[in-house]
Amino acid sequence: MRHVASEQPAETGNQTETHAAWDVELVPGPRGRTRRPEADCPVEVALAAVSGRWTTLLLRELMGGPRGFTELRELLPELSAKVLTDRLRALQDSGLVEVERRRGFPVRTRYALTEAGRALRSLLVELYATGEELLRLR
């Protein structure tokens, strides 16, 4: 027996679904109207941007302006050089950080947030406020 209501045309994916009671503040657009995590869901994109150990702290430090590798190590002394390198490379690969190499010996490298990286400021502020509230409610 076929269930016609659940069938979709071949060109329609399972990515979004209709839902009678979407909270328009939580799900203002069709990309978030899904029953499973999707790579282009705005919430998933935002969470992926700040995920990973040390990432939020690196973003916080770079919000203050461009920083050199050594300066970042001094600001986050418990962060190893290897992990710092890995995190900066991941942030660069995701388009959140740009690298400027200055001539000279030794070569000076500065890391700065891109426009996309700076756009994460409000998310970090809200995450902090939400974390404070959760700690208060425990």
TrEMBL record:
Stretches with biased composition (Polar residues): 9-18
SUPFAM superfamilies linked: Winged helix' DNA-binding domain
Native organism: Streptomyces kurssanovii
Domain of life: Bacteria
Region named Disordered: 1-22
Matches recorded under Pfam families: HxlR (PF01638)
Lineage: Bacteria, Bacillati, Actinomycetota, Actinomycetes, Kitasatosporales
Keywords from the named record: DNA-binding, Transcription, Transcription regulation
Name of the protein in question: Helix-turn-helix domain-containing protein
Residue stretches making up the HTH hxlR-type domain: 41-138
